Amino acid sequence: MPTYAYACRSCGHAFDAVQSFSDDALTVCPECGGELRKQYGSIGVTFNGSGFYRTDSRSGSGSSASAPASSKTEPTRSATPAPASTSTSS
């Protein structure tokens, strides 16, 4: 269940409350009976795994519309043929 932070508008009393998503927000301060407000702060986020890189979802250059479907190239082959093997049988 999530933990929500509340602060009183009247006395400034701040506290955390563990509530279900379906529970109504608290409205009355337990210290003075004043009006409460939810406090929103930065959320701690943890990314687990091997990593996430900037280039994972982008094409190599330019926009994705101009990029070819496959950027693999054929390996270059030598222009001169390999010498034929000669064998002599006795």
Walkthrough of the structure:
- It is a single chain.
- It contains no helices and three strands.
- It is mainly β and 90 residues long.
- The protein has a three-stranded antiparallel beta sheet with strand order 2-1-3, with no helix packed on it.
- A hairpin with a 5-residue loop joins strand 1 and strand 2.
Can you describe this structure in just a few lines?
With 90 residues, this protein is an all-beta fold. It has strands at 3-8, 14-18, 36-39. The protein has a domain at 3-39.
Mean pLDDT over the residues: 75
Taking Cα atoms only, what radius of gyration do you get, to the nearest Å? 33 Å
β-sheet strand percentage: 15-25%
* Percentage of residues assigned to helices: under 10%
Distance between the termini: 87 Å
| Spatial order of the strands forming the largest sheet | 2-1-3
What is the H/E string?
EEE
Structural class by helix and strand composition: mainly beta
For the secondary structure, the number of strands is: 3
The number of helical elements comes to 0
Shape: rod-shaped
pLDDT < 50 runs, ≥5 residues: none
